[in-house]
Amino acid sequence: MARNVAESPLERSSTLVSLDQKLALAKRCSHEGVMAGAKAAVVATIATAIPTMASVRMVPWAKAHLNPTAQALIISTVAGMAYFIVADKTVLATARRNSFNSH
Q1: Cβ atoms of residues 30 and 84 within 8 Å
Q2: CA 34, CA 23: separation in Å to the nearest integer?
Q3: d(Cα 82, Cα 87) in Å, to the nearest integer?
Q4: Are 90 and 24 in contact (CB under 8 A)?
Q5: What residues have CB less than 8 Å from 62, skipping those under 6 apart?
Q6: SS3 sequence, the chain?
Q7: Beta carbons within 10 angstroms of residue 43's beta carbon
Q8: How many Å apart are CA 92 and CA 103, to the nearest integer?
Q9: What's the chain's Rg over C-alpha atoms?
Q10: Average pLDDT over every residue of 56-61
Q11: HSE on the CB side for 72, CA within 13 Å?
Q12: Tens digits of per-residue pLDDT, 6-47?
């Protein structure tokens, strides 16, 4: 039902405080996602680079077909996928946790 009475300044300020709290919570949530994603990307880069470089040196097919651009593409693709998957899962988990805490 629509209210015909104008909001009081107290109601308006409490709405702004609530909005500021939600914005701060969203920023913290996204920051946690970025940090977790970056950590996962670093681990994935190392975990992919070692076997890729080793296989290029030891496996004849890989030595013949995987030039440095292909090696970089393999490693960066895995790092990017790890970043986005972990960041997305972290943001969703944090948002879910915060939504349960607010009720």
Answers
A1: no
A2: 16
A3: 8
A4: no
A5: 55, 56
A6: CCCCCCCCHHHHHHHHHHHHHHHHHHHHHHHHHHHHHHHHHHHHHHHHHHHHHHHHHHCHHHHHHCCHHHHHHHHHHHHHHHHHHHHHHHHHHHHHHHHHHHC
A7: 13
A8: 17
A9: 24
A10: 96
A11: 3
A12: 555 556 666 776 888 888 888 988 999 999 999 999 999 999
Contacts of 42 (CB under 8 A, 6+ apart): 79
Name the residue type at position 94.
T
86 C-beta neighbours (distance < 10 Å), count: 20
Residue 60 corresponds to which tokens in the numbers above? 């004849």
Tokens 């300044």 belong to which residue? 9
Write phi, then psi, for 2 (nearest 5 degrees).
Answer: -75, 145
